[in-house]
Amino acid sequence: MNQTQDRGSARRNGPVTRPLVNTVRRPSTVDLIAVELRNAIYGGTLMPGSSVREAEVASQLGVSRGPLRESAQRLVQEGLLVARPGAGLRVVTVGADQIDDLYQARLAIESAAVRQIAALDPEVRRRHIASAEVLFDALESALEDGSDARRIGDADLDLHYGLVEATGNLRLMSFASTLIIQTRIAALSHADGYVVRTDILDVHRTLLRQVSDGDGQAASETLAGHFRQTVDRLLGRLDKPFSTVSGEADGSHFSFNRLP
Q: Are 208 and 136 contacting, i.e. CB atoms less than 8 angstroms apart?
């Protein structure tokens, strides 16, 4: 495996790699197993509340249980897995009582990111947001089709992570990565199933324009409003009409990659 993976390449027929892979030097087996576990959670192979069957996962990855357990403990520390005495490891669930906290944390990280980018000199700023603009195009394409909830959800989260990634700040990227995975867990945990909004293009276009124009305050306020609406929708408090599409939460079309 290359030290830096192509995080935009993986989709429905392969491992999910954006926004789950941080650049590491000489990744160890434990590093690579952790990536695969994050991919499995983000992609729905390991659904919220499901158990991590050590023997089965280790066999699929072609590794022993020792490094698998070490990798799993990393995800416990990240809040993606939970260890219960006598019950082994399970994927966390993110219920209604945690939604506000989750989006407050995302707002803190993503607001810091857009403010940082907006404060750059114009030429430097354009270079930093170029990749985010490509991700916006991918979101636009997914929304134009409008029928694939997973594709829309992936493109939406890709763009939000891409803005953080554009800062080059590894700590912000690490925090954002975990929060993005928890966002997917929250969506998969919802009582109504996996549902995404399809009327979100304009707010993301506005967000990118504000960052491009160097208006970090306005971009931060746009994020805050967008997240407030998202929380209200997830908690059944959004009164204004909105458009959605639902998709299968089953992640059986994903599988673990056998490690080299």
A: yes
Query: 243 and 132 in one domain?
Result: yes
Q: Which residues have CB under 8 Å from 110's CB, separation 6+?
A: 160, 163, 164, 176, 223
Last-in-domain residue among 92, 109, 135? 92
Length of the chain in terms of residues written = 260
Domain that holds residue 124: 96-247
Q: What is the pTM of this model?
A: 0.85
Domain count, the chain: 2
DSSP string, 55-74: HHHHHHHT--HHHHHHHHHH
Other CB atoms closer than 10 Å to residue 235's CB: what's the count?
12
Q: Based on the fold, state whether residues 77 and 104 are members of the same structural domain.
A: no
**pLDDT tens track for 61-107:** 999 999 999 999 999 999 999 998 877 899 999 999 999 999 999 99
Asked if residue 19 has a cis previous peptide bond (ω within 30° of 0), the answer is yes
Average pLDDT over residues 146-166: 95
**Whether residue 116 sits in one domain with residue 42:** no
